[in-house]
Specification:
disordered N terminus, alpha/beta, 34% helix
């Protein structure tokens, strides 16, 4: 089944730029009494989607939503959802939660191949200010893997950056006499929390607790697109990976350098997926970082990877529906526009993959991370899951081709691991991310041993 929509996989690689919402809109809250009109409004919104009445569906959008997701973009998002989840069948339930000044209404819908919540967020005036298609909220209890020794470390709340873009984070510190070597964790695509939570999985918490159990401090933080979505939506047409990822990674390194319990010359950056792809750009901005760890990092153009992932997911059942064929054809057209030399900042985002603005694609144009990495002298550890369908061994081979002559670059593939570096068997699918697992212990060991050797 294709249960995971935009929170996982490449189909969402850049979906955060489409899904506009209020800060903390995804956090749990106490359902308020009354205000049934918002539930009616949310149900009416879903009804309009089902009837393909997109002009009516966007009628109650606030100004930010109207700009970020006009009727044609909403139609594209809904059709993409249907192509993955199957035809809408019925509404199963509805509930409401208060989140600060906002009200979030969850309309639980049964589709042919999945059950999903259409999460509609309203402002005080009753206008729609946020929209997500997400799996129904399930409360998962995180159970640490056996390699975590909780008596070996402690955690401290920190703030990464300052001012408008400040981000809350967690510093996991080994107990005992410091200073300690440290690692900054840099997220993959999408609006991730500090644990990079995907369903019941928390790979960044696994890494933080596992490495801290082995004497290495780890800093992880909320991604800007998770914590400041509304603010980013206002600058949607100008956002690039600099604002999405790079600036905050550099701020996290700066924070660690200011601490007496961290060894300044032993601060490393670990990037996962998109974060790994951007490691060379982070390294070019800060030459004093001690070294880099790349987990499932792409070397090919992002638009090509997105198209490949979409084709993979659509083909999991062994056949392509007419709707899926249309979705792929449209994505091919949009990818071609990204590659078109005539692409300009004025190109409409509605003509580009996932409605991501031209500025984002232009910023990545010509960027070949493996070639940029050749100009860095830093030691690197490049790891790849053999069952990863999002970032494949083709990308891994791209890193090896460019950097294998370097004595301070280490490569390793783990045949049984997926994109989250969790073990499994057979063909990897999006549904696999809904099964609880942990980053494999061998990955924790390899990273810790590599750091201690530097």
């Amino acid at each position: 089944m294709r249960e995971r929509m935009s929170a996982v996989a490449v189909l969402v690689a850049l979906a955060v730029l489409l899904h506009v919402g209020c800060r903390r809109a995804s956090e749990e809250a106490t359902p308020p009494a009354g205000e049934p009109h918002l539930e009616d409004a949310a149900a009416g919104f879903v009804h309009a989607l089902v009837k393909e009445d997109y002009a009516n569906a966007v009628r109650d959008f606030d100004d930010t939503m109207k700009k970020a997701m006009p009727a044609e973009k909403l139609e594209e998002a809904w059709r993409s959802l249907i192509a993955q989840a199957g035809a809408f069948q019925k509404q199963l339930g509805i509930h409401q939660q208060s989140v600060g000044p906002y009200e979030a209404v969850f309309v639980t819908c049964k589709f042919e191949r999945a059950t999903l919540d259409v999460k509609v967020v309203f402002d005080k005036a009753g206008r729609i200010t946020g929209l997500w298609f997400v799996p129904p909220k399930v409360s998962y209890e995180y159970k640490p893997p056996a390699y975590v020794k909780k008596d070996f470390f402690q955690e401290e709340d920190v703030q990464v950056g300052a001012g408008k873009w400040m981000l809350p984070g967690t510093l996991t510190l080994p107990k005992g006499q410091g200073p300690f070597p440290a690692v900054v964790l840099v997220h993959g695509s999408g609006p991730h929390d500090r644990d990079e939570t995907i369903g019941p999985n928390k790979p960044f918490r696994d890494l933080a607790w596992g490495l801290a159990s082995r004497g290495i401090a780890v800093l992880r933080y909320e991604k800007r697109t998770k914590y400041h979505p509304k603010e980013l939506a206002r600058m949607k047409e100008g956002i690039t990976v600099k604002e999405e990822t790079i600036d905050d990674a550099l701020a996290a390194v700066k924070l660690l350098r200011q601490r007496d319990d961290i060894t300044p010359a032993k601060i490393f950056v670990l990037g996962h997926s998109l974060g790994g792809m951007l490691v060379p750009r982070i390294g070019m901005r800060d030459k004093d970082i001690a070294g880099f760890i790349l987990l499932a990092a792409t070397t090919r153009p992002t638009e090509d990877v997105i198209l490949e992932q979409m084709a993979y997911i659509f083909g999991l059942d062994g056949k392509l529906s007419e709707d899926e064929k249309k979705q792929l054809a449209k994505m091919r057209e949009q990818v071609a526009r990204v590659k078109d030399p005539k692409l300009s900042p004025e190109t409409s985002s509605s003509d580009l993959p996932f409605g991501v603005p031209a500025a984002y694609w232009l910023d990545l144009r010509g960027y070949k991370p493996q070639e940029t990495a050749q100009s860095l002298k830093h030691p690197m550890l490049i790891l790849q899951g053999g069952r990863d369908y999002q970032v494949t061994t083709t990308d891994f081979e791209g890193w090896k081709k460019s950097l294998s002559s370097r004595k301070n670059v280490t490569f390793k593939v783990y045949p049984e691991l997926n994109h989250l570096f969790v073990a499994g068997k057979g063909k990897s699918t999006p549904a696999e991310y809904l099964t609880a697992g942990h980053v494999a212990e061998i990955v924790i060991k390899d990273i810790a041993n590599w750091i201690k050797k530097q």
